[in-house]
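Researcher: Let's do a round of design. I'm pasting the structure tokens now; please hold your answer until I've finished.
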């Protein structure tokens, strides 16, 4: 019997503002008490700064506590293995260990207790349901297994059917749709177009797979209008965005059918703040607010984190929705630590991708921003941007100039666009790497050969 209920967890997903505050305040105080009693990392951190968890009496007091930085967690694990001094439960209670993707440095290891694994699965169920999965959904799991694929599998099994495959197995993924009847896809934002290219090379029409929804995350892209339009037209299905955080919870945000931003769906599990990334001040959450996401655990046993800075730069798009969910909605611009400063202008690589993608089908959407040197404060224009093209040689000069003009008009910096043939730039089945820091490669080469 199929389940046609509107929400996975109606009470939590439709909490009125005052009840949301009450639920989160109680959970926060309970979690902070647990942290103060069980986390050596926070005991030391708070003591050195002269603060106590008892200083927080209400949710507004959270800003009295310091931020937690990713680098601190790495250092904690280097100094106190295997999971660092921020572990808050016995190792015998740890049932799963993941590693983050290491996008911004050395990977960190994340432990989950049985309770934590169940909590992550609950959040993922809310997210998948928001995106439209139901009991008849069959989903190939093609996200990288080293991240949080197991929690996704737990959630998908609670809703429908999961087909574990992993990345790099295109024929098996195709088989899941053609032979097993899979009807949804969970992937990174850049994977669908890579998958479509693989299908077309095999003479397969992407629409023939019968995909109803593609749920994407792990990187900006699904919310970029030109990318979304191309994916939806190619596959004939909805392309919806999701987002979590490997250190906090696998899924925290998910987009509904109205596509007005990703809803916060981790009520009672994670508490979100949006801060000014320059001064660290918490911002009022209202439509139009822009800043960096900060998370605090509300129901974590193994590795609870307090005011963890994500470096994800977002904008609040809505505080209510026709779908009935009351979780605020956001869009992601990119990561503040991926941002390029060009003559004082903040440039997010995903924004460059968006501009270039508007020139499809003359371009494939695959780009690479190349940075030859590491400046103290910013890069001097023109910025070198490689773009895969699909035009005849006689059209290349005009296309190059149009892309450069569009970048200058929309992003306010000069680019030197180099058009390259299809296949020259690497394609990634996991997170697409939009920026190539040539100076880091040179430094690494010199280190190895010296």
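Researcher: That's everything. Go ahead.
Model: Designed sequence:
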């Amino acid at each position: 019997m199929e389940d046609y209920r509107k929400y996975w967890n109606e009470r939590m997903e439709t909490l009125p503002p005052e009840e949301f505050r009450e639920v989160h305040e109680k959970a926060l105080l309970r979690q902070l008490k647990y942290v103060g009693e069980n986390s050596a990392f926070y005991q030391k951190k708070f003591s050195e700064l002269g603060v106590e968890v008892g200083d927080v009496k209400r949710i507004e007091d959270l800003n009295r506590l310091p931020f937690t930085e990713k680098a601190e967690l790495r250092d904690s694990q280097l100094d106190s293995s295997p999971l660092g001094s921020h572990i808050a439960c016995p190792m015998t209670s740890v049932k799963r260990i993941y590693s983050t993707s290491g996008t911004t440095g050395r990977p960190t290891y994340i432990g989950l207790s049985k309770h934590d694994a169940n909590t992550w699965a609950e959040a993922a169920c809310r997210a998948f349901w928001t995106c439209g999965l139901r009991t008849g959904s069959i989903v190939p799991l093609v996200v990288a297994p080293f991240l949080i694929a197991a929690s996704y599998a737990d959630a998908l099994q609670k809703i429908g059917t999961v087909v574990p495959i992993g990345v790099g197995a295109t024929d098996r993924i195709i088989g899941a749709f053609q032979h097993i009847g899979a009807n949804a896809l969970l992937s990174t934002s850049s994977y669908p177009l890579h998958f479509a290219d693989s299908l077309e090379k095999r003479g397969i029409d992407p629409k023939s797979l019968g995909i109803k929804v593609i749920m994407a995350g792990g990187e900006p892209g699904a919310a970029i209008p030109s990318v979304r339009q191309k994916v939806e037209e190619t596959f004939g299905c909805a392309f919806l965005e999701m987002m979590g955080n490997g250190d906090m919870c696998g899924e925290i945000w998910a987009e509904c059918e109205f596509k007005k931003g990703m809803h916060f769906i981790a009520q009672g599990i994670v508490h979100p703040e949006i801060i000014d990334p320059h001064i660290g001040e918490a911002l009022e959450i209202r439509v139009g607010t822009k800043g960096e996401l900060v998370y605090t655990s509300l129901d974590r046993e193994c590795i609870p984190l307090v005011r963890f800075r994500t470096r994800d730069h977002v904008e609040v798009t809505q505080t209510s929705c026709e779908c009935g969910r009351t979780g605020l909605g956001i869009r992601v611009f990119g990561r503040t630590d991926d941002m390029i400063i060009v003559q004082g202008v903040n440039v997010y690589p995903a924004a460059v991708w968006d501009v270039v993608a508007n020139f499809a089908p003359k371009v494939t959407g695959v780009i690479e921003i190349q940075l030859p040197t590491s400046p103290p404060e910013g890069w001097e224009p023109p910025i070198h941007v490689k773009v895969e093209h699909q035009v005849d040689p006689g059209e290349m000069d005009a296309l190059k100039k149009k892309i450069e003009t569009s970048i200058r008009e929309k992003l306010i910096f000069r680019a030197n666009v180099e058009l390259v043939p299809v296949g020259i730039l690497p394609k990634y089945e996991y997170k697409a790497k939009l920026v190539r820091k040539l100076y880091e490669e040179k430094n690494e080469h010199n280190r190895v050969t010296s």
